[in-house]
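Example record for the data management plan.
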Amino acid sequence: MTSLYDRPFRFGLCLFTPSTRAEWIAKVRKAEELGYDVISVSDHLGMPAPIPTLLLAAEATERIRIGTLVFNTAFYHPTVLARDLATVDRYSGGRVELGLGAGYDRAQFDAAGIPFPTAGERVSQLERTVAEFRKPKSELDKYARFEQPGGPPILIAGRGARVLRLAAAHADIIAFTGTTEVRDGDGLKLGGITEVTDRIDYVRGLLGDRIDQVEFNIPIHKVLPKGATDGVTDVWQNRLDLTPDELAELPSLLFGTPEENADTLRERRKTLGLTYYTVLEPEMEAFAPIIQALR
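Corresponding structural encoding:
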């Protein structure tokens, strides 16, 4: 049986830049050509809407899976979301991976004209949404017939203890953000290595017998030459307190040649159980040689 520490690697690509139809098709086909396993989209106002972009990605490709990273569950009624995702799953031939999160950005709620719930209220809505997708098939089939038996794999992303407890109990994929909140609703900052490993250790302690049934995910924000820590500052100016050595340790950043980075990912699989990496769109081509080095 495959364990958490020897799972095959998987590589996702999170696309978020607004595109024309032709540009979007070209991007997803390029991702498939480069060897990515999953196309993910975010759920932020100002970025492409998840459901139509996922359907177009599925139509334009042959094998690559499609998913969300992640739906802001505070924006949706769970039953309606289940109906919509079941339709995407059927029309894509069963390629959906469902990413869910509680939502964190007050500005997104303000722009949508939705009152910003408390953190506890947002997590409660996430719990209700997970429960909806985990209903027995006989109940779900009344309004949400998924192509995949048992429904799509569920990814839960988060940082807080309550969300991670939910993920440990119910998720197929647990996504560690590699970030911390500045203040509830006011954005994120890059987490240090201790913050990241503490979250991973916390989840490993909760999983019990499920530890070999789940997959650990983390984003890749940057792929840079060895020592090129200046390249991080254009994205994460709020963590300039980290030294170059500390930056080089972060699981969401990679420094070095493709072969060196492949060795780094093998080591992180062995020590942290990280096997599923989601690469941000600007790093799509820079990360591709690492995929080839690990296949």
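Summary line stored alongside the record: Residues 10-294 form a domain with the TIM Barrel fold (CATH 3.20.20.30).
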